[in-house]
Specification:
This protein has a domain of 83 residues. It is 41% helix and 0% strand. It has four helices and no strands. Helix 2 packs across helix 4. It is elongated, with a radius of gyration of 19 Å.
Length: 123
C-alpha cells in the first residue's frame, strides 16, 4: 500500500496536479506459523519430493486470503501462472504436473497424522 501511495504522490508532483483519494486494504494478507499442521504437512511433502522450501509472502487476493481472514487456516498452493490477469494468462503443462505431484505427496504425507483435523461449516 505504501508503494502505491508513493506512486500517486510522485505522479502528482511530476504532472503538477493535486491527487485526492482513499486506499483500502481488500485482502489483508496472512501468516501461518511454522508449527501449524498444514505447514508441517506441506514441508513433509516437499521433503518427500526432495524439493527446496522457502518462505514466501504473497500480497493479493486469493481464496486462501478469504479463508484465513475468516479463521480457517489455509495454505496457498499455486501452479505458477504466466502473464496473470491478462489475455495471455496461461499455466504450463509442467507446472500443472508439478502441482499434481505436490498434492499427491501432501496426501501421502498425511497418512500417519496423529491428530484429527476437523473443518467447520460455519466459516
Amino acid at each position: 500500500m505504501k508503494k502505491s501511495n508513493k506512486f500517486f504522490f510522485e505522479s502528482g508532483i511530476k504532472y503538477d496536479v493535486e491527487i485526492l483519494g482513499e486506499s483500502h486494504v481488500t485482502y489483508p494478507g496472512f501468516a501461518i506459523t511454522e508449527r501449524h499442521h498444514s505447514v508441517v504437512l506441506l514441508k513433509q511433502a516437499l521433503r518427500r519430493l526432495k524439493w527446496p522450501t522457502r518462505e514466501v509472502q504473497y500480497a493479493g487476493g486469493s481464496d486462501a486470503s478469504v479463508f484465513n481472514e475468516r479463521g480457517l487456516t489455509t495454505v496457498l498452493l499455486s501452479p505458477g501462472y504466466q502473464n496473470p490477469h491478462s489475455e495471455e494468462e496461461q499455466i504450463s503443462k509442467s507446472s500443472l504436473e508439478a502441482l499434481v505431484e505436490l498434492i499427491l505427496a501432501i496426501a501421502l504425507s498425511g497418512e500417519n497424522l496423529e491428530e484429527a483435523i476437523s473443518f467447520s461449516k460455519n466459516v
